[in-house]
């Protein structure tokens, strides 16, 4: 299992043990809005979820009871509960909405749940959990925005800001919260210690429409005399952003908004907020830019500035800034943190004589270096993803991003430098001005703190490395937003990349709140006519409206709904989803074909191409792609409307779907079933989106299969690649899907693996077979082609959702051995608990082990099995009636762990 927290894992083991002894269910993993004990949320009716723990076969919940109170002791006092559901007959254990009295700003609610199982046996009450509200009204912010007074304007980067204020707390403190945000990225300190462990706060949003603030419990950090201090750096707000050399896209003035709300034991409340009394200056952070890196001059760091008694007379008074507060929202996404540390595996002296350190893994983050020397000495660190074919440090693909950190020593002993306000994408570090040992240089892995939920492994180590590359590509590019790449002058939220990868992402990690946050920015940046911008947050002046990119508005909410059973995200995003479909309807017009040559589309971006002058096979007409996605997104809006009870709109979009499908079939299919764009991508789209005329299914499948066989490799790009193997499997051609998966030569998924890749590449030929590397737009760390991961989980291992029962309430365990694999294993922590689907073939016999969590059911398919030839542990003879199907044996099972063994037919 992929549970990160050892305490939770130990509790689950203990619960299962006691359950087996006493036949009593228990409750674990209490969450509120996908978080454990969240502080500072602004959801009016937060949703509560839990895991049922019960070792009994077919265990399921038949009822629950939730109680909420203002304190832990009051939970057990019925009259002091602020809300109680009473015993509710229901099997629902995810996203149960709180329906008690509205909570005030800063108010904390404690909650417990107990459940009844299939025998009507109740559990004990769970351990208490809580959630705490943030600031729900603009008036809750008495603090003022402040900025450095008289800062000069500059076309290039300026030093970061330093802010401080001393204050006293002369009464006994009951609790204290710090609420903070900035224009720029900030770090706050209390009495010399950093507040919290989050990085790059307040995050990347559409700043003038949605600006996040963070909430910190600082009760234990306060004394009688206190100093609050903060650094604010350029970040995404004022730094360089995009590939056009623009700086200050959102504004040219950094600013800070912060307040400490202190509640004293006697009931009094005091607010210490940013105002005109604060002092400001600059210091050691001479330059902090996400693309270009950080320059830190330790000689200029004001000694003791974060502590009481610092003489700030040389600092200036702050200027109060006139910035509205009505766009402030609580930060309910995933915090960015330093997750892992990596020690270099090798020190390399390149042919050019440069000293380079190899981490062995392409990561995103920064480097920590331990140095010593004289005051004024400098150490420079540069970052690269690869070495070129001669073995030299390669940075041409970074384009204008300098990716350089400089530390100027203060002298006097050992010093440690770790940048605070920049990040890089790198495997290799070039160090100049100092020669550290491997123990003096550390790679710090930074990304949104996603809980790992899934893993796939099999008998082929190259495919296992591919899975590792997919997961690393996701970690490296999920840094507050889903970036396209983490290393060059880009690192923005391309909608197309996020769209095609969304289901793979949800298998690997818990991304429910990550996507919820990002989709809110997509919606606020969406134009009134429904057009979705190419990147979110939009930093490209409202450019957008491209098929497969704009469809992130419909596909990603649907992926979240399927993965987590989250109906609310459909409700909250419905206007955005519908807006995008209406934009496409306007573009398509009365013939239902989106083929306006004036509209820009990215098409099947970066599809394989050849230098052969007679080559044709990868260029798919953009209007075909556009119309296919028009149909698909309309189908998702239709389904969403039906789920949300919008019956009339569901019927309207069902009718629209019929018109689009008929138009697509008239325009793009010949009578023999050939598509006018005779490409793998065109066939994959038509098959996956159900656009093929029923009477032509066999012919279309044959055309598709023949094209794959003709080339012997994939020819697809960002649009076609995620659908390629699954569409081949859909027409019964697993042989071709596995052929493409197993191919090691260029172009293929495994070709980069054979070249030593540790992440997913942007291009099939990011590094050519002769070792040459494309300069310019070329990344060794994209994730779009990693969407093959969805097929590995859902088809090879056979773990897939049931659209009729989303969130794994019911799911399918339907493996498909092939490609010479002798085993495959998928493990996944669903919102109900751990799921496992693991098969092994040896000596003509297949063993299939499955785990189904309590309160769920699964349809299990045993490929190639006849019901009478299966041995099951535990014995299911008296409880399950397996059915013979064309694919094998099928049965529906409740919770439990089962092992099936049977002889495979000789043909397998």
Automatic annotation (TrEMBL):
Listed EC numbers = 3.2.1.40
Q: Which residues form the Bacterial alpha-L-rhamnosidase N-terminal domain?
A: 171-339
Which InterPro entries does UniProt cross-reference here? Answer: 6-hairpin_glycosidase_sf (IPR008928), 6hp_glycosidase-like_sf (IPR012341), Alpha_rhamnosid (IPR016007), Bac_rhamnosid6H (IPR035396), Bac_rhamnosid_C (IPR035398), Bac_rhamnosid_N (IPR013737), Galactose-bd-like_sf (IPR008979), Ig-like_fold (IPR013783)
Q: Which domain of life is it from?
A: Bacteria
Its top-level enzyme class, in one word, is: hydrolase
**Does the keyword Hydrolase belong to this entry?**
yes
Q: Write out the GO MF terms.
A: alpha-L-rhamnosidase activity
**Alpha-L-rhamnosidase concanavalin-like domain location, by residue?**
350-447
Keywords per UniProt: Glycosidase, Hydrolase, Signal
Give the Pfam families listed for this entry.
Bac_rhamnosid, Bac_rhamnosid6H, Bac_rhamnosid_C, Bac_rhamnosid_N, Ig_Rha78A_N
* Annotated catalysed reactions: Hydrolysis of terminal non-reducing alpha-L-rhamnose residues in alpha-L-rhamnosides
Q: Which residues form the Alpha-L-rhamnosidase six-hairpin glycosidase domain?
A: 453-796
Where in this chain does the record put each Alpha-L-rhamnosidase C-terminal domain?
798-870
Coiled-coil intervals, chain numbering: none
In the UniProt record, the signal sequence range is 1-23
Which PANTHER family does the record match to this protein?
A: ALPHA-RHAMNOSIDASE (EUROFUNG), ALPHA-RHAMNOSIDASE (EUROFUNG)-RELATED
Q: What is this protein called?
A: alpha-L-rhamnosidase
Where does this protein come from, organism-wise?
Neolewinella antarctica
């Amino acid at each position: 299992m992929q549970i990160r927290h050892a305490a939770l894992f130990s509790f689950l083991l203990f619960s299962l043990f006691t359950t087996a002894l006493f036949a009593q269910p228990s409750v674990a993993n209490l969450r509120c809005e996908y978080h454990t004990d969240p502080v500072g949320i602004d959801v009016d009716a937060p949703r509560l979820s839990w895991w049922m723990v019960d070792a009994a076969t077919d265990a399921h919940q038949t009822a629950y009871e939730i109680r909420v109170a203002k304190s832990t002791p009051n939970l057990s006092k019925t009259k002091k509960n602020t809300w109680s559901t009473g015993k509710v007959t229901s099997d629902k254990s995810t996203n149960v909405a709180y329906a008690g009295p509205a909570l005030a700003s800063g108010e904390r609610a404690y909650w417990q749940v107990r459940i009844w199982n299939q025998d009507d046996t109740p559990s004990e009450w769970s351990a208490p959990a809580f959630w705490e509200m943030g600031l729900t009204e603009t008036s809750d912010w008495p603090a003022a925005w402040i900025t450095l007074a008289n800062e000069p304007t500059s076309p290039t980067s300026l030093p970061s800001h330093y802010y401080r204020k001393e204050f006293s707390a002369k009464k006994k403190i009951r609790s204290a919260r710090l609420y903070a945000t900035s224009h720029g990225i900030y770090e706050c300190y209390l009495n010399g210690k950093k507040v919290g462990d989050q990085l790059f706060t307040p995050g990347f949003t559409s700043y003038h429409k949605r600006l996040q603030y963070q909430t910190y419990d600082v009760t234990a950090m306060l004394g009688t005399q206190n100093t609050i201090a903060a650094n604010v750096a350029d970040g995404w707000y004022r730094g360089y952003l995009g590939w056009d050399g623009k700086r200050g896209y959102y504004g040219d003035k950094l600013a800070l908004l912060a307040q400490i709300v202190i509640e004293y034991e006697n009931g009094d409340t005091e607010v210490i907020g940013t105002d005109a009394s604060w002092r400001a200056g600059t210091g050691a952070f001479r330059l902090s830019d996400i693309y270009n890196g950080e320059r830190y001059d330790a000689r200029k760091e004001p000694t003791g500035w974060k502590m009481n008694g610092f003489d700030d007379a040389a600092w200036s008074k702050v200027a109060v800034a006139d910035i509205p507060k009505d766009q402030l929202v609580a930060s309910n996404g995933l915090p960015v943190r330093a997750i892992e540390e990596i020690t270099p595996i090798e020190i390399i002296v390149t042919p050019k004589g440069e000293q380079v350190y190899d981490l062995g893994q392409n990561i995103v983050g920064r480097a920590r270096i331990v140095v010593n020397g004289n005051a004024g000495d400098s150490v420079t660190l540069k970052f690269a993803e690869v070495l070129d074919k001669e073995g030299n440090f390669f940075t041409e693909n970074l384009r204008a991003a300098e990716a350089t950190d400089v530390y100027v020593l203060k002298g006097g002993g050992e010093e440690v430098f770790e940048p605070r306000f920049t990040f890089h994408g790198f495997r290799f570090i070039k160090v100049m001005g100092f020669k550290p040992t491997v123990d003096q240089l550390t790679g710090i892995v930074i990304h949104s703190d996603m809980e790992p939920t899934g893993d796939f492994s099999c008998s082929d180590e190259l495919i296992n490395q591919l899975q590792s590359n997919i997961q690393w590509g996701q970690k490296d590019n999920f840094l507050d937003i889903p970036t396209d790449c983490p290393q060059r002058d880009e690192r923005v939220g391309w909608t197309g990349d996020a769209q095609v990868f969304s289901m793979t992402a949800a298998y690997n990690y818990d991304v429910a709140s990550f996507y919820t946050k990002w989709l809110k920015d997509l919606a606020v940046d969406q134009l009134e006519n429904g057009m979705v911008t190419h990147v979110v947050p939009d930093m490209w002046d409202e450019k957008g409206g491209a098929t497969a990119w704009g469809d992130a508005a419909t596909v990603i909410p649907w992926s979240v709904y399927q993965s987590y059973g989250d109906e609310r995200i459909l409700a909250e995003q419905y206007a955005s989803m519908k807006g995008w479909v209406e934009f496409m309807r306007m573009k398509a017009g009365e013939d239902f074909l989106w083929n306006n040559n004036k509209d820009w589309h990215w098409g099947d971006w970066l599809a394989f191409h050849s230098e052969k002058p007679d080559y044709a096979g990868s260029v798919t007409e953009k209007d075909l792609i556009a119309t296919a996605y028009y149909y698909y997104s309309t189908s998702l809006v239709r389904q969403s409307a039906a789920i949300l009870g919008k019956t009339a709109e569901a019927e309207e979009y069902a009718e629209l779907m019929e018109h689009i499908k008929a138009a697509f079939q008239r325009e793009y299919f010949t009578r023999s079933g050939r598509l006018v764009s005779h490409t793998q991508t065109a066939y994959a789209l038509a098959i996956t989106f159900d656009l093929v005329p029923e009477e032509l299914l066999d012919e279309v499948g044959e055309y598709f299969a023949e094209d794959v066989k003709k080339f012997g490799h994939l020819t697809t790009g960002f649009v076609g690649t995620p659908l390629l193997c699954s569409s081949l499997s859909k027409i019964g051609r697993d042989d071709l899907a596995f052929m493409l998966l197993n191919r090691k030569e260029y172009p293929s998924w495994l070709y980069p693996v054979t070249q030593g890749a540790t992440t997913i590449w942007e291009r099939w030929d990011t590094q050519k077979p002769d070792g040459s590397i494309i300069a310019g737009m070329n990344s060794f760390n994209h994730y779009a082609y990693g969407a093959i991961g969805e097929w590995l989980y859902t088809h090879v291992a056979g773990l897939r959702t049931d659209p009729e029962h989303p969130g794994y309430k019911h799911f399918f365990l339907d493996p498909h051995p092939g490609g010479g694999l002798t085993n495959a294993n998928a493990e996944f922590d669903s919102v109900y608990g751990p799921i496992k689907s693991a098969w092994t073939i040896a000596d003509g016999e297949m063993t299939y082990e499955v785990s189904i969590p309590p309160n769920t059911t699964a349809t299990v398919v045993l490929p190639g099995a006849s019901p009478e030839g299966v041995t099951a542990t535990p014995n299911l003879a008296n409880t399950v009636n397996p059915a013979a199907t064309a694919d094998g044996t099928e049965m529906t099972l409740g919770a439990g762990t089962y092992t099936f063994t049977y002889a495979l037919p000789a043909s397998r």
